[in-house]
Amino acid sequence: MSFTPVLASEWLKIRTLRSLYGSLVALVAVAAGFAGLAGTSDTADPDFDPLFTVFLGVGPAQIAAIAFGAMAVSSEFQGGGLRQALTAVPRRGRWFAAKATAVAVPALVVGLVTGSLSLLVGRAALGEAADGLTAAEQLRGVAGCGIYLMLMALLATGLAALLRSGVATLSILVPFVLVVSFVIGDAAGGATDFLPDRAGQVALHETWDGALGPWTGLTVTALWAAVALGAGAWSVHRRDA
User: Fold this and answer.
1) Cα torsion for 166, 169, 22, 218, to the nearest 10°?
2) Residue 202 DSSP label
3) For residue 170, what are the CA distances in angstroms to 47, 128, 150, 152, 174?
4) pLDDT tens for residues 126-178?
5) Nearest CA among 102, 100, 110, 108 for reference residue 157
6) Backbone angles phi, psi at 145, to 5 degrees
7) Digit-coded pLDDT (tens) for 65-97
8) Engineering a disulfide at 61: which of 31, 67, 148, 157 sits with its beta carbon 3.0 to 4.6 angstroms away?
């Protein structure tokens, strides 16, 4: 079976799982909700970053992107779904590539919609405080938001394929992005700038410090996702369905 019908079947699976729709809706709602709170920010703070304030909701919203990627794969390990999928598509690498693509495309599209909506809502909430943002910075923020959320979904996709469990994947990644980066990260020094979430979110800042810029930061996040997908592909290829 060629790649196109395999991709179509994986896309059909995602369309029929309501929980996956719910995670994408939650992603948009959370990000837009936090953007609406941008007007409460202290714009007189010397460290005030209007672009990151607009996209502040991406932090909590990424949990929904992670859940989307994890659940899209973990559903295959319930009720013999993976065994049936591999019976239809014996080439396991092709099946996993189709699964990852079926996760990446909607995650990117929803991420771009989320970025656009966050920008509109956040700019309205900030008022004159957002007037200094250039068109290039705003475009970078929207594009970075979409790419970043897609990469986090793919990171979860690879890890879920490796662990064969959505619960285990969420138990690792959710504390990782909420605790390690935000609690331990600032105290641990510059090494944590290379964690997947901290690196990728540089693209959401107007200005930044450290070794990574917006696109190099997203590249680091992409490398994390690639390693996770590689490990997931290895697990799918080597282990019994």
Assistant:
1) -140
2) G
3) 32, 39, 16, 12, 5
4) 888 888 899 999 999 999 999 999 999 999 999 999 998 989 999 999 998 88
5) 100
6) -60, -50
7) 999 999 999 887 776 666 676 666 667 778 889
8) 31
Q: Are 237 and 92 in contact (CB under 8 A)?
A: yes
Whose tokens are 């319930």? That residue is: 78
Look up residue 127 and give its two tokens: 């008022």
Report residue 85 as tokens: 């999928």
Residue 115, amino acid: G
191 to each of 52, 95, 173, how far by Cα in Å? 21, 36, 18
Q: Do residues 182 and 194 lie in contact, with contact meaning Cβ atoms separated by under 8 Å? A: no
Terminal-to-terminal C-alpha distance of the chain:
19
* Residue partners of 70: CB distance under 8 A and separation at least 6: 156, 157, 159, 160, 166, 169, 170, 173
Is the pTM value of this prediction over 0.85? yes
- 66 contacts 173 by C-beta, under 8 angstroms: yes
Q: Which of 182, 47, 57, 194 is nearest to 119 (CA)?
A: 57
